[in-house]
């Protein structure tokens, strides 16, 4: 499992501490939830692709995400622009 590290300034830390109890818990939840949403979107695209092309869908979410990559249904983002959510 990859570890993701971010760096913020002391001022940013102070500012965040006024709106959240635990910065680490908040950031972990934000990233985990965004990954969950992306996974659901990928699986939905995969199911539509497999149904349209009579392809058997892999069993289990991990295998389905991998299958979506293998079939070219999804690929890594190529832009460096932050997402606008």
Provide an overview of this structure:
With 85 residues, the chain is mostly helical. The chain has 3 helices and no strands. The protein has helices spanning 10-17, 23-53, 61-70. The chain is elongated.
Shape: elongated
DSSP E strands, number: 0
Q: What is the string of helix and strand elements? A: HHH
- Radius of gyration in whole Å, from Cα? 17 Å
Would you tell me the overall average pLDDT?
A: 94
Number of helices: 3
Range of helix content: 55-70%
> What composes the largest sheet?
none
Distance between the termini: 25 Å
Q: What are the segments in which pLDDT stays under 50 over at least 5 consecutive residues?
A: none
Percent of sequence in beta strands: under 5%
Global structural class: mainly alpha
